[in-house]
Amino acid sequence: MLNFDSEFHFCPEAHRYTMGGIELPSVTTICAPLYDWKYVDKDLLERKAALGTAVHLACQLWDEGDLDEDDLDPVIVPYLAGWKRFVADVGFAVIINEQPMYHPLLGYAGTPDRFGLVHGDPVPTLIDIKTTSVISKAVGVQTCGYTEMIKHHPLGKGARKVRRAAVRLPGDGTYRYHQFDDITADHACFIGLLNLHKWRIHNGKP
Predict the structure, then answer these.
(1) Domain 2-202 class, CATH top level
(2) pLDDT at site 204
(3) List of residues 6+ apart from 182 with CB closer than 8 A
(4) Which tens digits make up the pLDDT trace of 4-17?
(5) pTM of the entire structure?
């Protein structure tokens, strides 16, 4: 269990966030109604999820300078190469790397993938790393939830404006960059989903 202050806790094994012993909904849970996986093969979903987790970990450790690339699974290598290429192309400087956090006013939590600065751009960027074949518009809503938390986090440095983007790693050594610009619609959707989640919990709905 990881402890980031006297009240906020994150258990990575259960992917569970708590504040003062009370469980907080995650951004992923809040945004779940936007995704419909019921027609996708369960085994395929599990394999894709495992791949995404492994790629995220490799990119995280590489950003931190702690990755032993000699022991890296060959399957992961081209995904990591794509991330390296993105970082080099835009001069991305990481400020926050896979840091669990919470929103002190809205009562939810999550772990943004990256928050940092693109070379030459004074406005910081929140990045969500994806290994999916396409980038869903729902990712824009998800990044909005993360951005609102970062604005209240000490490392967010009081950022009033944050760019939101997804970096898709197709696994061939390249990347695709997708920026989300409709903050009004994405924010309204996220707040609506958060309120829906709280209503369901309050009324005992699954």
Answers:
(1) alpha beta
(2) 79
(3) 140
(4) 466 899 998 888 99
(5) 0.90
- For 46, residues 6+ apart whose C-beta sits below 8 A from its C-beta are none
Question: How much is the pLDDT for 123?
Answer: 95
- The Cα 112–Cα 198 span in angstroms is 21
Q: Which of helix, strand or coil describes residue 113?
A: coil
Helix (DSSP H) and strand (DSSP E) numbers for the chain: 5, 11
**E strand spans, 31-171:** 93-97, 101-102, 109-110, 114-117, 125-130, 163-168
Q: Which of 15, 29, 51, 20 is nearest to 200 (CA)?
A: 29
Q: Is the pLDDT of residue 37 over 80?
A: no
Domain boundaries defined on the chain = 2-202
Taking the C-alpha atoms of residue 191 and residue 155, their distance in angstroms, rounded to an integer, is 23
User: In this predicted model, what pLDDT tens digit does every residue of 67-103 receive, in sequence order?
Assistant: 999 999 999 999 999 999 999 999 999 999 999 999 9
* 3-state SS, residue 91: coil
23 contact partners, CB below 8 Å, separation of at least 6? 16, 17
